[in-house]
Write a structure and sequence with these properties.
Elements: H1 3-11, H2 18-30, H3 35-48, H4 52-63, E1 79-83, H5 91-101, E2 106-110, H6 120-124, H7 136-146, E3 148-152, H8 159-170, H9 177-190, E4 195-202, H10 211-227, E5 231-238, E6 246-247, H11 249-260, H12 266-282, H13 289-301, H14 304-315, E7 329-334, E8 339-344, H15 346-355, E9 372-375, E10 382-383, E11 388-394, H16 402-412, E12 413-416, E13 426-430
Parallel strand pairs: 1-4, 2-3, 4-5
Antiparallel strand pairs: 5-13, 6-9, 7-11, 8-10, 8-12, 9-11
Helix pairs in contact: 1-3, 2-4, 4-9, 4-10, 5-11, 5-12, 5-14, 9-10, 12-13, 15-16
Bound molecules: uracil.
Uracil is lined by residues 165, 174, 179-180, 183-184, 207.
């Protein structure tokens, strides 16, 4: 077999056999096949695509290319969740304690963020004292003891994806559904859960903006998960505007706490109950996802989910006693005209929060955990000229960027006359 022949087969639109894919992917990870041949193959896949069987085999090979987490020591069915990401997406902070309270063990390995705001691990670090780096043995013991642990991901999972993703980034081959699906799913599967619930977002603040492509991505990932023996479902949800009102690490933690205390934003609560219902069902605690939703609601309304969050924080050394870190300054961004908010370009709000220091521009950038934005008006709200659209939270180090962030934020709001077109938050659920 020669790498060049494998590239030619994909270029000419043929489907690969397992042997061909194994030769190519394993050869690349070992260094026998170089970046130039992988780049050519990625471009061939970009144009020719991959069928379902090839995509499942590719994911399987990628998943075995690095360390794999063994969660078999945990009692019960471990269900993981993955979100394709968005602006103000703090669902994990609500969901993890919610499903743990319902008896589904949560062994969550999360990442740091690049872009708009931090990832779950950055957000948790906004809680004073919270330790996100814990040894594997202690992590597993904690899950068995209190039903929940959330820690930072190790960097040795899925070596194939590390190399391939970096190459895709510089060869204009990121936007290929089989490559995205295998990249995401190989990492999720290597993290060891028995079942997976995917939150796939579409809209202006989503990675996959078009609804139909987001659906195709969700279907492909559900097929991969189920094809590799993990029960997997996906919820397609709108990211046309920020989720909830808070964008930025400590502001998002506070909003997650408010939600667990029963007074959070309606959209965040609804998404968490829907995803929670799926997770509770796949975790074997109810016989349908609808019953899972009801149980999730019970956990929220009874305060048991909030108590579970407090247990998690305590177990990992954190404390809410003195609140979260606070930004030094606030700046209200005013509406330039009166009317009804027709649309909010979520991506621009995310970018404005990054300008204030809430997100990383590069992997090496420092993140300011107290910076961010509290949105005051959402789509469909009436606003008077001069009323605040949002409040910016920032510290001295980023003060020079406030005017730019304010301008970007003001321009992200489309204000007009008449009722706004509202995209439903949850569009579809794709089940096994
Ligand atoms: N996120 C990933 O992990 N992989 C992709 O290919 C795209 C987004």
């Amino acid at each position: 077999m020669r790498a060049c022949d494998i590239i030619a087969r994909k270029r000419d639109g043929f489907a690969h056999s397992r042997d061909e894919l194994a030769y190519f992917i394993n050869g690349y990870v070992k260094g026998d096949i170089g970046d130039e041949q992988m780049a050519a193959w990625l471009m061939a896949v970009y144009f020719q695509g991959m069928n379902e069987e090839e995509t499942i085999i590719l994911t399987d090979l990628m998943l075995h290319s690095g360390e794999m987490i063994d969660l078999s020591g945990i009692d019960g069915i471990v269900v993981d969740k993955h979100s394709t990401g968005g602006v103000g997406d703090k669902t994990t902070l609500v969901l993890a304690p919610l499903v743990a309270a319902a008896g589904v063990p949560v062994a969550k390995l999360s990442g740091r963020g690049l872009g708009f705001t931090g990832g779950t691990i950055d957000k948790l670090e906004a809680i004073p004292g919270f330790q996100t780096s814990i040894p594997t043995e202690r992590f597993l013991q904690q899950v068995n003891r209190i039903g929940i642990a959330v820690a930072g991901q190790t960097s040795s999972l899925v070596l194939a994806d590390k190399k391939m993703y970096a190459l895709r980034d510089i060869t204009a081959t990121v936007e290929s559904i089989p490559l995205i699906a295998s990249s995401i799913m190989s990492k999720k599967l290597a993290s060891g859960a028995n079942s997976i619930v995917l939150d796939v977002k579409f809209g202006s603040g989503a990675f996959m903006q078009e609804k139909e492509r987001a659906e195709l991505l969700a279907q492909t990932m559900v097929k991969i998960g189920n094809g590799l023996g993990r029960r997997t479902s996906a919820v397609l949800s709108s990211m046309e505007e920020p989720l909830g009102y808070a964008v930025g690490n400590s502001l998002e933690v506070q909003e997650a706490i408010d939600t667990l205390q029963g007074h959070g934003p309606a959209d965040l609560q609804e998404l968490c109950l829907t995803l929670g219902g799926q997770m509770i069902y796949l975790g074997g605690k109810t016989s349908t996802a609808e019953d899972g939703y009801v149980l999730a609601k019970e956990m929220l309304e009874s305060g048991r989910a909030y108590e579970k969050l407090l247990e998690l924080i305590h177990a990992q050394g954190g404390s809410l006693e003195n609140g979260m870190v606070q930004a030094q300054h606030q700046y209200a961004v005013k509406a330039p005209v009166s009317g009804v908010v027709q649309k909010i370009r979520a991506r621009d709000i995310g970018h404005a929060s990054m300008l204030l220091g809430a997100g990383r521009e590069t992997k090496a950038s420092a993140i300011d955990l107290s910076a961010g934005i509290l949105v005051q008006k959402k789509t469909g709200d009436t606003v008077q000229a001069g009323e605040p659209l949002a409040v910016l939270y920032y510290n001295d180090a980023f003060a020079h960027r406030v005017e730019e962030a304010a301008r970007e934020l003001q321009q992200s709001y489309i204000i007009g006359d008449g009722a706004a077109h509202m995209e439903p938050l949850i569009w579809k659920v794709i089940s096994e």
